[in-house]
C-alpha cells in the first residue's frame, strides 16, 4: 500500500494550468525530492497535497484514503505535515510554545505537549533558544523550528518547503544531518521541494522533476541529473544537445 | 485534578509580579473593612465588574486576536434573563445566572458560525452591527419592557443571598469579588491549556495553525463562547446590583467599546492586562466624571481625555500597559 | 388605502431613497478611497461627516451664507481635517498591528464626538432658512419632492463626477490610484506614497464634509449623528466593494432605497390589511435593516458588487 498516491492531478487557476496530469507514488520510508525550474508548478503541487488548494482534476490518496480537496487541518490530522518557507509571526509565541502547538494536535495535556516539544528541541539543536521569539532567530534556526513544530504532530509524511533556501554551506550540511535524523530516527517519510541541488541529490532516494506543470522525469538522482529533458528544462536547448 | 493544579499555577511569572498580585489580592479582600466612601465602594464594584468583562473579552480579543466590539448584547441577555425570571417567576439569582449564560452562549454559537468567516476590521464592524440590531430588537420588545426597561422590585425578605438583594453594598462587593477570582483562575487555566496555545498560534499565523491540525474557525467560536459566558454572568449580576435595566445601559455600543478598551489599554492577550486596564480606566472615568461633570458646560471632557489616551496607546504602544512593562523588562535584560 | 395612494407612497419612497442614496454614496466615497489606498478603516468617518454638517450649519448661522453657497468652506475644512488626522495620528497607526489601527480611529471617533458635544451642545440643530429649504418640487401625481434633497442629490452626483475625473484624468489622481493598486510598485516609480496617503485622507475628508454640508439642509445635526452614518457608510462600502468608486455610487443608491423601505412595507401592510410583523413599528428598524444588510453582505459576498480589494 503506497503511502501517497497521486493520480492525474491537475490544478487550474482561471486561465492558467499550473499542474497538468501529475501522477506518482510514495512508499513509506522513502525520501523523495521534487525539483524543477522556477514556475514549474512545484509550490502548486505542494499546496494541493497540503490541502491549501483543491485540485481541479485528479485524485490524491493518502494511506489509501481519498483526501482530494481536504482542508489543511484535516490533512494534518490524517498525518501529513508541512513546513513553511517564510514564517511571519507577530511574536506572541516563543520557540517552545510554537512546537507545543504542534504537540497539541495529538494530546490535550500541556504537560505531554511540553515533553514532546522538549524532546524535539534537544535533537534539533534548539536547546539554547527555547525562550526566544521565532522572528528574532537566524534563518537556519527558524527553519529547524518550523520543522520541529511540524514534527510535533507525529506525521507519517512530512513535506519540506525549500528548507535549504538562504542557508550557507555549513548550515546546509547541518540541515542534511537533521533531515537524515528525521527520516531515520523518527521514521518519517519525506518529500522535499528544493532548489538547492546538493541537498536533494545527497538525500533523495528518488527525484521527481516538474516543468511547466508536468512531470517530465522520475528516477534516481544520478540518472535524473543526466536526463536530457531535465537539462533542457533548466538550461535550455543548447546545453541539452551537449 | 491536573486541571485545577494548572488553574492555580502562576509559576511562569517572575517573583515581583506574584508579590504585587498577592498584595493586590489581599487589598481586594480587606477593602470593605477599610474606611471608604460609598462612591469608592461603587467604583470598586465597577472595577471588579469591568475586570471580569475584560477577562472574558480577552479570550477572543486578546489571545484570539479578533477584536470584538459587540459584547454588550450578551451582557443584555444575561441581565434580562435574570431580571425577567426574577420579576415574573420569582426565580433565584443563582438559578437564572446559569440559564442566562446558557442562552447567551447559545446565541453566540449561532452568531459565531457566520461571524468568524470574517477577520480584522470586517469582523469588528460586523460585531457592532449585530449588537446594534439586537439592541434595537430589545428596545421594541414589550416582553422585556422595550425602551423603558425593567425594574426589579425589592423583596420583602431582603437581604437575600438567594435573590442577591442586599441593603449594604459590601455584600455585592464580595459576590463580584468571588466572580473575579473564579474568572482569574479560569483564565489562568485557559492560557496554559491547549485551546489557549491554539488561539495564540492562530493569532500569530492562521495558516501555520491550520497546518498543525487546528480547526481555526471552531477554535475561535469556542473562545467567543467563553467570552460570552463571562460577560453574561456579570450582566446578571448587574441586573441585581442596579435593580433597573434598560437596553441603553446594558446593550449599548458604548459598553461594548469600554469593555474592549479596558482590556486593550491594560494589555490584550495577557493575564493581568484587563485587570490593569480596568484599574486605570474605571476610577479615572468615575472621578473625572464627578469632577468635571460637576462644572457646568464641561460635559464629556472625561471621554475626551479617555479617547486621547486611546489614540496615544494605539499609536505608540498597542500592546497596552502590560506590553509596555514587558518591553521595558526585555530591554533591560539585554 | 387605495392602490393609487400605495403607488404614490412607494414612488415617493423610491425617489426619496434615490436622492438620499446619492448623498450616501458621497459619504461612502471617502471611506472607500482611504481603504483602497491604505487598507485602513476609518471609524471616525461619521464624525467627519458630522463636522461637515456643523460646518454647513455654522457658515449659514454665523456668516449668513446659504449652506449650498458655503460648500467650498466645508470642503476646505474637510480637507484640512483629513490631512491633519493623517499626520497627527494615522501615520503612526499604520506601523502597528490591526488592533491598533482599529482602536486608533475608534479613539478618534470618540474624541471628535465628545469635542463636538462640548463645543456645540447635545441639541439637534438644523438649517431652517436656506434658499431651498421648505420649497418643494412637484413631480406629478402628488409626489412631492423636497428641493433640498433633490439638489443634494444632484450636487452629490457632481461631486462623484469630479472625483472620478480627478482619479482618472489628473496626474495626482492617477498617482493615488497607483498607490492604491500597489503601494510598493508606486514607490519604485517615484510616487511619494506618504504624501499620497495624506492626500487620500484629505480627499476623503473633503468629500464627506461636502456630503455633510449638503445633508444638513434636510437632516438635523447633533454630536451623535456620526455613528449611524459610519454604519451606513460601512454598509455602502461593503456592498459596493471595498475600494471601488463606482461601487460606492451604486451601493449608495441601494442603501438609500433600503432605508426608505420600511415605510414602504408599512404602507404595503396597511394596504393589504395584513400585518406580517407588529405592523406600524417596522420603521423603527430601518437602521437595523442597514446593519443586518452589512452583516449578510460580509458573510455571503464580502467582495460586494465591484470590490477588488477584499
Give the integer mean of the pLDDT values of chain A.
88
Instruction: Report the principal-axis shape of chain B.
Output: globular
| β-strand number of chain B | 2
- Shape by Cα distribution of chain A: globular
Helix fraction bin of chain A = 25-40%
Structural class of chain A: alpha/beta
Strand order of the largest sheet of chain A: 6-7-8-3-9-10
Secondary structure category of chain B: mainly alpha
Largest sheet of chain A: 6 strands, mixed
Structure description:
The complex is a heterotrimer of chains A (242), B (334) and C (310). Chain A is an alpha/beta fold and 242 residues long. In chain A, 39% of the residues lie in helices and 24% in strands. Chain A is built from 10 helices and 10 strands. Chain A has a 6-stranded mixed β-sheet with strand order 6-7-8-3-9-10, with helices on both faces. Chain A has a 4-stranded antiparallel β-sheet with strand order 2-1-4-5, covered by helices on one side. In chain A, helix 6 (169-185) links the parallel strand 7 and strand 8 (189-193). The radius of gyration of chain A is 18 Å and the shape is globular. Helices cover 75% and strands 1% of the residues of chain B. Chain B is built from 15 helices and 2 strands. A two-stranded antiparallel sheet of chain B has the order 1-2. The two termini of chain B are 39 Å apart. The model of chain B has no long low-confidence stretch (mean pLDDT 89). Chain C starts with a helix and ends in a 10-residue tail after the last helix. In chain C, helix 1 runs parallel beside helix 5, helix 1 packs antiparallel against helix 10 and helix 5 (147-169) crosses helix 6. Mean pLDDT of chain C is 81; it is low at 274-280. Chain C has helices at 3-38, 45-63, 71-93, 98-120, 147-169, 171-181, 183-188, 193-215, 225-240, 245-259, 261-272, 286-300; strands at residues 136-138, 144-146. Chain C is an all-alpha fold. The interface between B and C is large, with 46 and 41 residues.
Amino acid at each position: 500500500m503506497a503511502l501517497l498516491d497521486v493520480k492525474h492531478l491537475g490544478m487550474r487557476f482561471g486561465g492558467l494550468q499550473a499542474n497538468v496530469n501529475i501522477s506518482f507514488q510514495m512508499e513509506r520510508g522513502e525520501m523523495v525530492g521534487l525539483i524543477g525550474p522556477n514556475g514549474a508548478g512545484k509550490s502548486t503541487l505542494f499546496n494541493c497535497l497540503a490541502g491549501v488548494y483543491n485540485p481541479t482534476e485528479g485524485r490524491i490518496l493518502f494511506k489509501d484514503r481519498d483526501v482530494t480537496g481536504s482542508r489543511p487541518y484535516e490533512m494534518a490530522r490524517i498525518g501529513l505535515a508541512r513546513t513553511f518557507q517564510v514564517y511571519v509571526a507577530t511574536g506572541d509565541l516563543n520557540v517552545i510554545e510554537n512546537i507545543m502547538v504542534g504537540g497539541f494536535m495529538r494530546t490535550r495535556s500541556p504537560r505531554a505537549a511540553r515533553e514532546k516539544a522538549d524532546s524535539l528541541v534537544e535533537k534539533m539543536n534548539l536547546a539554547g533558544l527555547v525562550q526566544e521569539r521565532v522572528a528574532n532567530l537566524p534563518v537556519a534556526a527558524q527553519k529547524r523550528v518550523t520543522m520541529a513544530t511540524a514534527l510535533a504532530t507525529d506525521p507519517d509524511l512530512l513535506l519540506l518547503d525549500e528548507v535549504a533556501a538562504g542557508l550557507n554551506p555549513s548550515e546546509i550540511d547541518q540541515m542534511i544531518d537533521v533531515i537524515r535524523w528525521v527520516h531515520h530516527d523518527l521514521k518519517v517519510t519525506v518529500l522535499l521541494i528544493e532548489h538547492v541541488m546538493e541537498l536533494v541529490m545527497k538525500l533523495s532516494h528518488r527525484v521527481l522533476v516538474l516543468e511547466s506543470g508536468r512531470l517530465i522525469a522520475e528516477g534516481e538522482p544520478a540518472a535524473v541529473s543526466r536526463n536530457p529533458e531535465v537539462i533542457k528544462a533548466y538550461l535550455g536547448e543548447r546545453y541539452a544537445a551537449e | 485534578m491536573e486541571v485545577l493544579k494548572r488553574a492555580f499555577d502562576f509559576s511562569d511569572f517572575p517573583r515581583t509580579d506574584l508579590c504585587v498580585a498577592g498584595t493586590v489580592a489581599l487589598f481586594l479582600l480587606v477593602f470593605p473593612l477599610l474606611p471608604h466612601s460609598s462612591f469608592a465602594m461603587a467604583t470598586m464594584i465597577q472595577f471588579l465588574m469591568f475586570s471580569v468583562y475584560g477577562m472574558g473579552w480577552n479570550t477572543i480579543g486578546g489571545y484570539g486576536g479578533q477584536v470584538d466590539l459587540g459584547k454588550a448584547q450578551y451582557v443584555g441577555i444575561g441581565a434580562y434573563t435574570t431580571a425577567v425570571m426574577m420579576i415574573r417567576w420569582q426565580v433565584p439569582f443563582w438559578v437564572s445566572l446559569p440559564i442566562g449564560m446558557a442562552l447567551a452562549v447559545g446565541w453566540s454559537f449561532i452568531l459565531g458560525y457566520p461571524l468568524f468567516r470574517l477577520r480584522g476590521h470586517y469582523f469588528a464592524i460586523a460585531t457592532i452591527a449585530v449588537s446594534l440590531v439586537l439592541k434595537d430588537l430589545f428596545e421594541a420588545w414589550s416582553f422585556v419592557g422595550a425602551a423603558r426597561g425593567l425594574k426589579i422590585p425589592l423583596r420583602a425578605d431582603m437581604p437575600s443571598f438567594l435573590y442577591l438583594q442586599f441593603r449594604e453594598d459590601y455584600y455585592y462587593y464580595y459576590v463580584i469579588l468571588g466572580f473575579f477570582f473564579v474568572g482569574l483562575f479560569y483564565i489562568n487555566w485557559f492560557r496554559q491549556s491547549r485551546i489557549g496555545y491554539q488561539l495564540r498560534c492562530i493569532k500569530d499565523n492562521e495558516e501555520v495553525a491550520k497546518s498543525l491540525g487546528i480547526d481555526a474557525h471552531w477554535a475561535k467560536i469556542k473562545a467567543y463562547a467563553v467570552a460570552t459566558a463571562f460577560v453574561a454572568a456579570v450582566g446578571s449580576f448587574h441586573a441585581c446590583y442596579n435593580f433597573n435595566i434598560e437596553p441603553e445601559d446594558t446593550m449599548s455600543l458604548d459598553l461594548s467599546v469600554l469593555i474592549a478598551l479596558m482590556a486593550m489599554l491594560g494589555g490584550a492577550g495577557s493575564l493581568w492586562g484587563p485587570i490593569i486596564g480596568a484599574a486605570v480606566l474605571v476610577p479615572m472615568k468615575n472621578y473625572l466624571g464627578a469632577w468635571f461633570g460637576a462644572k457646568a458646560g464641561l460635559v464629556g471632557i472625561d471621554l475626551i481625555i479617555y479617547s486621547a489616551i486611546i489614540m496615544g496607546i494605539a499609536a505608540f504602544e498597542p500592546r497596552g500597559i502590560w506590553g509596555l512593562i514587558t518591553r521595558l523588562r526585555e530591554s533591560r535584560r539585554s | 388605502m387605495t392602490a393609487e395612494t400605495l403607488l404614490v407612497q412607494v414612488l415617493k419612497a423610491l425617489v426619496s431613497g434615490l436622492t438620499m442614496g446619492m448623498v450616501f454614496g458621497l459619504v461612502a466615497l471617502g471611506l472607500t478611497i482611504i481603504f483602497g489606498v491604505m487598507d485602513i478603516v476609518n471609524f471616525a468617518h461619521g464624525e467627519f461627516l458630522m463636522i461637515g454638517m456643523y460646518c454647513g450649519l455654522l457658515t449659514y448661522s454665523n456668516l449668513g451664507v446659504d449652506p449650498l453657497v458655503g460648500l467650498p468652506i466645508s470642503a476646505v475644512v474637510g480637507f484640512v481635517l483629513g490631512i491633519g488626522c493623517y499626520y497627527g495620528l494615522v501615520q503612526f497607526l499604520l506601523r502597528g498591528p490591526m488592533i491598533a489601527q482599529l482602536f486608533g480611529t475608534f479613539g478618534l471617533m470618540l474624541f471628535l464626538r465628545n469635542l463636538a458635544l462640548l463645543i456645540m451642545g447635545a441639541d439637534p440643530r438644523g438649517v431652517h432658512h436656506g434658499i431651498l429649504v421648505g420649497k418643494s418640487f412637484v413631480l406629478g401625481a402628488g409626489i412631492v419632492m423636497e428641493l433640498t434633497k433633490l439638489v443634494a442629490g444632484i450636487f452629490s452626483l457632481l461631486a462623484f463626477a469630479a472625483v472620478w475625473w480627478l482619479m482618472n484624468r489628473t496626474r495626482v489622481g492617477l498617482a493615488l490610484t497607483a498607490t492604491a493598486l500597489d503601494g510598493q510598485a508606486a514607490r519604485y516609480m517615484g510616487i511619494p506614497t506618504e504624501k499620497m496617503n495624506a492626500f487620500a485622507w484629505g480627499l476623503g475628508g473633503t468629500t464627506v464634509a461636502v456630503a455633510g454640508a449638503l445633508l444638513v439642509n434636510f437632516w438635523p445635526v447633533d454630536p451623535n449623528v456620526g455613528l449611524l452614518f459610519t454604519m451606513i457608510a460601512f454598509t455602502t462600502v461593503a456592498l459596493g466593494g471595498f475600494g471601488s468608486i463606482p461601487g460606492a455610487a451604486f451601493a449608495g443608491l441601494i442603501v438609500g432605497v433600503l432605508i426608505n423601505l420600511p415605510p414602504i412595507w408599512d404602507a404595503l401592510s396597511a394596504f393589504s390589511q395584513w400585518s406580517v410583523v407588529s405592523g406600524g413599528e417596522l420603521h423603527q428598524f430601518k437602521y437595523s435593516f442597514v446593519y443586518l444588510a452589512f452583516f449578510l453582505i460580509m458573510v455571503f459576498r464580502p467582495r460586494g458588487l465591484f470590490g477588488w480589494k477584499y
